[in-house]
Every structure is written in C-alpha cells, then in structure tokens.
Amino acid sequence: MALKEKLNIAEIDYQLTAKHRMEEFHNLGLNLGNSGWTLPMDLSPGETQMLDGKIKFVNEILFSYYNEESLLKKMDEKLLSSKYLKENAILIKQIFIAYRQQLYVLCIAGIAPVIENLFANFTKQKKIKILSNSLKV
Q: pLDDT for 16-45, tens place per residue?
C-alpha cells in the first residue's frame, strides 16, 4: 500500500485549483471595480485576497494609498516628464491640484481628453509607421 493511501491523502487537481483561484481573483477585481477602485499592481495575490468582502477597509486603505503625497508627487513627475503628454502638461498639473483638493469629478472630466489625445497620437503614429512600411520596396 502506497504512503498516500496509508495517510488517506486525496489527489489534488492543480489545474482546477489554479482555475478556481483565478476566478476568485477575477470576481474580487470586479467587486472592487464596482466600488470604484482599481488594484495597485504591486499587491500580491495574498494581499489582494485579504481585501475580499471588506469594502470599508478597502476604501480606507486604497484612499490612503492613492493620497500618499510621495506617490502623488512621483506620479505627477512621471506624467509631466512623458514626451507623449507634454502638450497636456497644464491640464495634468491642474488635475493633480484638483485631486489633492478632493475634487474627483473634475479629475475624471479633465483626464478624459488627455487619454483620448494620447490614444489618438499612438494611433496616428501607428498608421504612419504602417504606411511607411508598406511604401518600402
């Protein structure tokens, strides 16, 4: 008799377990998204799972995370130093001012044109690249 049978250890279906865990994380992400949050990319799966079902706690933690002045300053500097966002620098500065004053509706309304412009620039660059490549013989 094998040791596994002696100890009465059940077979573990690792693929099913992994699939189940991915579904749990997907559902957690949806629940947080429905509450208005996106997860910071540096959260581990364990940290993420600890947030499940604790929306008040999530609100407190993520609010403090996204309002940490050093993080805001870093984000501000990164965005303003981007060559793709130079023409939107004044608007981005004002968005950060509004954010620090908790004027979130203004932030959302202000960032939409920046994102649209960014996508338009990337799309235009991609079309130019495709055209130039197709004209090469």
A: 677 777 787 777 777 777 777 776 666 677
CA 78/CA 70 separation, integer angstroms: 12
Q: What is the mean pLDDT of residues 71-77?
A: 83
Cα angle: 124, vertex 125, 128; to 5 degrees: 85
User: Can you give the length of the chain in residues?
Assistant: 137
DSSP string for residues in 51-107: TTT-HHHHHHHHHHHHT-HHHHHHHHHHHHH-TTSGGGHHHHHHHHHHHHTT-HHHH
- Give, as one character, the DSSP assignment of residue 131: H
128/137 Cα distance (integer angstroms):
16
